[in-house]
Specification:
404 residues, alpha/beta, six-stranded mixed sheet, binds iron/sulfur cluster
Length: 404
């Protein structure tokens, strides 16, 4: 038995609840099991229950064995004084508060059907390493998959937005500098993100603003700072300001394996320089609510020849997280809603992970679906978080949950 399984059983109240009693014979009626606490302290907070007809509000602590209470030193931690119920798989020891009163304890061992335990175990210990429910997910209604994918797509948007808010802090509230950083990182795509991020230090936006009037020079200074001057047309004419001289990158930062020549870093940097000149180094539009076609048009020039897929990827990784972060910062959810709509309108992405889920009939009609699928893969399936996933819950509900 693992604690994570007990969390699931308690959260879902997936045990026989008839004539519930603590180990010393007090009746228990659960009104609400509470909210799972992922921080320090008892496992569930704001639970509400009746013990011997007396109403209690407080925390619930879960353990495999009752003796884990002392083993985890909860008897010395005042945060556990407000525990109203100790839920254990096996009661092997009485547990007391510092005032000498016994913590009411509920034992689950005899109240759970072995078939639910078997199913949980099969799900968590499935040999399929990346999608443990792959063999069972066909039993899950479409609507459950759609809801879970959309839920985690929103989590992904917020996670990325919070990273941007951290970046904004480090840039002392400079939104355009933050947008510049996000934009360059997106132009690194998967392989050269780190190099592009370093380039934001080697050539800050304020210097781009000084050079944008001359496209050739802007391209040359970018290539020089990126240590890619061999691709520069007029490098000899370039006068590097002393402030930038020692900031040139180490050429080893760039990666070339498994990318097409059209995505090599010097190609991406040249495209970026052309666009920055076109925008007159003003990135405020990246933080404004505009139709998704408007964002696409901003990147769509003959001179850069950026492909439609690349433009979609840049919008997904730059515009959407920036709008979400802007909305969170200003507590204005119209930005988040617009970012969500943008993802809905952008075509579904296509990669190895997405194809795996498509084969299991997961939704995949827009970038919202594929962003949700990627999040599900990275933060749920590969981490075996099936008991926190509504698809996992639906799979497990296909069996009776408690002994009758
Ligand atoms: S986390 Fe959800 S979708 Fe992923 S394998 Fe588990 S149950 Fe399936």
């Amino acid at each position: 038995m693992k604690e994570i399984v007990l969390y699931y059983l308690w959260q879902q109240q997936a045990f026989n609840r008839e004539n519930l009693q603590t180990i010393d014979g007090q009746t228990v009626v659960v009104q609400s099991g509470g909210i799972l606490n992922t921080n320090a302290g008892p496992d569930f907070s704001v639970a509400r229950l009746y013990i011997d007809n007396l109403e209690w509000h407080g925390s619930v602590e879960i353990h495999v064995k009752a003796s884990d209470w002392r083993r985890h030193r909860h008897h010395q931690d005042s945060a556990y004084e407000r525990v109203i119920l100790h839920v254990v798989w096996e009661h092997d020891q009485d547990v007391y508060r510092s005032d000498g009163t016994m913590v009411p304890t509920l034992e689950l061992k005899s109240r759970v059907n072995s078939s639910i335990l078997f199913r949980i175990q099969s799900l968590l210990e499935n040999v399929q390493p990346s999608i443990p429910c792959a063999n069972l997910v066909n039993q899950v209604p479409e609507i459950v998959k759609i809801a879970q994918v959309e839920r985690v797509a929103i989590q992904r948007m917020e996670r990325k937005a919070n990273e941007i808010l951290e970046l904004l802090k480090s840039k002392k509230g400079d939104w355009q500098g933050t947008a510049y950083h996000c934009l360059l990182r997106s132009f690194g795509f998967k392989t050269n993100q780190a190099g592009m991020e370093q380039l934001t230090q080697a050539l800050p936006l304020r210097w781009v603003r000084k050079w944008y009037g001359n496209s050739d020079q802007l391209t040359d200074i970018f290539l020089h700072q990126a240590a890619l001057s061999q691709y520069s047309a007029n490098e000899k004419m370039l006068v590097i300001p002393p402030e930038l001289e020692n900031k040139q990158l180490n050429p080893s930062v760039w990666r070339y394996s498994r990318i097409r020549p059209t995505s090599f870093p010097h190609v991406r940097i040249k495209q970026l320089a052309i666009l920055l000149k076109q925008w007159q180094a003003d990135l405020s539009w990246l933080l404004q609510i505009q139709p998704v076609e408007y964002y696409m048009q901003q990147f769509c020039t003959e001179a850069t020849n950026l492909g439609a897929r690349s433009i979609d990827t840049i919008i997904i990784n730059t515009v959407v997280p920036l709008l979400t972060a802007h909305g969170l910062f200003h507590r204005d959810d119209t930005y988040q809603q617009h970012a969500w709509l943008c993802l809905k309108e952008i075509k579904a992405e296509d990669n190895k992970v997405i194809r795996k889920y498509a084969g299991l009939n997961f939704p995949g009609s827009s970038a919202l679906d594929t962003q949700g699928t990627l999040e599900l893969y990275q933060n749920y399936c590969t981490k075996k978080q099936c008991l926190s996933c509504s698809i996992g819950t639906a799979v497990l509900k296909k069996q009776p949950l408690f002994v009758s």
